Predict the structure.
Amino acid sequence: MTLSLSTGSAPLDAHPLRSEPSNVEKVTATPVTSNAATKDSNTSIHLDLSPVARGIASASEKAGNTQETKNTKIDESDLPQEIKELLKRVVEYREKLREKQQELEGVMRDQSLNDEQRQAKLDALQQEISSLNNSLQEAMSQLSKLVTQMDVDDDAVVGMMSLAMS
């Protein structure tokens, strides 16, 4: 991917502050001419994205479609409506848990927080995660009871669990 930036008259020959890790993706940029005079037309910029940053960007792009896609697959299944609704709740709780886990990791990495602020945010997130886990367990328990009551066949149960856990 090429990223074009206008550099104006600012020099870009500064030395890097750290060495580049081998597992970092590099993006180079080609200069764009502007009204300002530039000294060197071969100036380039590189952007390092850590694997974590690439993962977060990728997850945020996919997050909107993931739950909708799963709900569509659930709706298209041959399962009874009550089971479909519970499966959708399971998917929703699992997605919210993933989001809260990412928030938790972000708070742990946030260097702008002092220890007291960090602990307060961590405690609040841990309570939310605990509540979501309890809700997920309750939905799974209800789903299990419903499957037993409706005497759903084994193939349908396997398909249902695949939908819930994907």
About this structure: The longest helix spans residues 115-150. Residues 1-40 have pLDDT under 50 and may be disordered.
